[in-house]
Amino acid sequence: MNPVQAPYPATRLRRTRVTPAVRALVRENALEVGDLIWPVFVRSGEGIEEPVPSMPGVMRRSVDKIVDAAAEADALGIGAMCIFPYTGIEERTEDCAGAWAPDNHANRAISAIKDRFPHIAVMSDVALDTYNINGHDGFVEDGIIVNDRTVEALVKMSLSQAVAGVDIIGPSDMMDGRIAAIRGALEAQGHSDVMILSYAAKYASAFYGPFRDAVGASGALTGDKKTYQMDPANSDEALRLVARDLSEGADMVMVKPGQPYLDICRRVKDAFGAPTFAYQVSGEYAMVKAAAQNGWIDEERVMMESLMAFKRAGCDGILTYFAPAAARLLQG
Ligand code: PBG
């Protein structure tokens, strides 16, 4: 009898799972601190660190406290931070002029981090929602979110961030044509090294709820964002958006939300091979926190498993509120 024709399966996949050392040998993906981008919320004032109720463990910080957060990131080996401004209703206007004010608190936070920690890559958010009286990412005229006038404002906003010293511009607005317009303006103004991470496949998602509390947009938002953010039912459209944004000059692309859209991450990575990121958004974070607070899941293990899932799906990196906690674990 041929010895390889044993009565049992020749391939026993359990063999390579038998010990931690063997599992480490055959492990296909790894999560590293360098994969993490930490989103932080900046607000006006000084010496302020106020908790965001729907996002346990997440703070809104004044600029000086953002610098403390950058020191924490630096100590943990986190190499990238993303700045989101919180604006009270009294700071919001119809013309959204705060969005490109050179000294708005987002721009001051960008400069403050770059002054102290020049090696940290600082990413911005480009969209009007945090400055808009009605909470939309674009200008509203007669109830319609207008595209081209919004793009002109997004260009001004991006240039103000570039002047503040941002490394990576993050347009999260979903207007058409904004990547080409921003890229062109950056080149023309001598900011050719500033990168663009386009929120290319951004869905109209209920998972953003806690974020809108964090940035003060919940009370402000009128209606929904379905005329510019994607329909959760669509997948081919995500590839068209990514192709379009890469052709307009995006250096990196984002899929958002993350975990419910891992299929999109994989399709994007396979189709383009471009640097691909996922945003593990506020609602994803809040769900893990809430379940853990009830003692229903193991927070650390669920956190690490969810982050590894992004790597397995083809993502190069993850924007996540868990960044410091995950970095702490990864550092042992
Ligand atoms: C808005 C923006 C949103 C998020 C990031 N940028 C919310 C929205 O589109 O309404 C959500 C992030 C999160 O939920 O963590 N430009």
From TrEMBL:
Catalyses which reaction(s)? 2 5-aminolevulinate = porphobilinogen + 2 H2O + H(+)
Q: Which InterPro entries match?
A: ALAD (IPR001731), ALAD_AS (IPR030656), Aldolase_TIM (IPR013785)
Residues annotated as coiled-coil are: none
Q: What is this protein called?
A: Delta-aminolevulinic acid dehydratase
Q: Which GO terms describe its biological process?
A: protoporphyrinogen IX biosynthetic process
Q: Which residues cross the membrane?
A: none
From which source organism is this entry? Answer: Sulfitobacter noctilucicola
List GO molecular-function terms, semicolon-separated. porphobilinogen synthase activity; zinc ion binding
- Keyword Iron among record annotations: no
Give the family per the record. Belongs to the ALAD family.
User: In the UniProt record, does the keyword Lyase occur?
Assistant: yes
| Quaternary context | Homooctamer.
Q: Which pathway is this protein assigned to?
A: Porphyrin-containing compound metabolism; protoporphyrin-IX biosynthesis; coproporphyrinogen-III from 5-aminolevulinate: step 1/4
State the EC number(s). 4.2.1.24
SMART domains in the record, alphabetically? ALAD (SM01004)
Kindly state which keywords UniProt assigns to this record, in alphabetical order. Heme biosynthesis, Lyase, Porphyrin biosynthesis
Which Gene Ontology cellular component terms are annotated?
Answer: cytosol
Q: Where is the active site?
A: K202 (schiff-base intermediate with substrate), K256 (schiff-base intermediate with substrate)
